[in-house]
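tool_call: predict_structure(chain=1)
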Amino acid sequence: MSSTSEAPSVRSGNAPILPENGISGFSLGVVIAVLAFLAGIALTAFFAVDSAVRGWSGELTGSITVQVRGMSAAEIDSSTASALAVLQETVGLSNVAVMPRGEAEALLEPWLGSGNLPADLPMPALVTADVTPELRAALDPLRARLAEDVPGASLNDHGAWTDQLVEAARRMRGLAFLAFCLITAAAASVIVFAARSGLAAHRNIIEVLHLVGATDSFIAGQIGRRYLLLGFAGGATGAFLAWVVTKVLAVVTTDAGGFLPAFSIDTSTALWMLVIPLLLGTLSTVSARIAVMRTLKTDKFV
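tool_result:
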């Protein structure tokens, strides 16, 4: 009767060195997918805010509004006619038009409610016009002429509001990008922890590989390739779910209306979602390889 001693077998072919179960298996893929989803939301918010504010600020900086006030409806009508004459004679202005009273009342409905304004209320008239960038940079002469010819008129070029909007947008955009960077850093930390934990839990497999002549670089490369697949698969899943959620949100808010522009996702923003699985895949394999190499050098493996 002969006895045989069986040593732990090394996996061959394309099978991973570390077992699929545990922290370096399916559960890690789920964590990466969740982080990729959050990264996709942050990245989409970054581009959505930038696109919406550029569109809104472009409309504001490309137009001016003249408000005409008076003590009576007749006085307002007379002053409005004078303001129209001045604006139509000004080079650099186009599409000069008086806003209908119904549209002006609609602007006040959020504060006063619908149908609460008396019909004989001397509501100021609003005259809108498109302005060229050259004229917008030098509106003082037009403002002075309106003040002289139409005492009840005041010109608003939306400059102060636009500056405040751009500053707020920059802060929101910065926060969204910071969130994206923090989520990416969290993904790297998770990968490093999983790689080190996987080595500690399957120390016997690493020792057998060393016994049969495997180098640290070979082991790190094998494990790094495995985390590349995990990072890419989890990143693709999370990015796809983020795209679905943001696309649904864009459809829901398309006809919502309101003061701010509707939330929208264009093609270029959607293409940026492809960066997430590529980034997480690369980050996973690099982080895992560095963690494995450091662990193999510092710990005493046979």
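agent: Residues 70-151 form one domain. Proceeding to next step.
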